Predict the structure of Mitochondrial succinate-fumarate transporter.
Amino acid sequence: MAAMVERNDAPKLHHVSPIVKGFAGSMGGVVEACCLQPIDVIKTRLQLDTAGKYRGIMDCGRTVVAEEGVRALWKGLTPFATHLTLKYALRMGSNSVYQTALRDANGKLTDARRMAAGFMAGITEALLIVTPFEVVKIRLQQQKGCAKTGLKYKGPVHCAATVVREEGVLGLWSGAGPTMSS
């Protein structure tokens, strides 16, 4: 009969603080924004093209570059990157906090509690970051034209302030229910 040998070669888990996880999430948001911004600019131009100027995605991208230069594909990067940076920082950081709070007395986290932490982090992110940023982004995108004269909203901060002034602070959370469920 073989002797049983007790081995302790299981990997040791290192605790990573919510701040580090939040920072990592925010860096991921910056990278994502830089990669996706040209696609978002093209999508928005196509959505607002009621005159039929563009014949599709590639034509829209080529036209924007030809008329405005390559940098035009990154118009609006700052608010988009800010949105994603805050969103992912909050998601990763709050998920870590929720996981810590849901651990049992032995420090174990069941799959169900891990899922609950992710669910709560998603709701937190949707309510605190995504919904107000989406309200502002959509209000800005639905405006026709590029010249600031004649536009209701002059930029993201002006748009948010106008929504709050005209609709109250809860106007920034219009559509929060569907946003949380997506």
User: Anything to note?
Assistant: The CA atoms of residues 63 and 82 lie 27 Å apart.
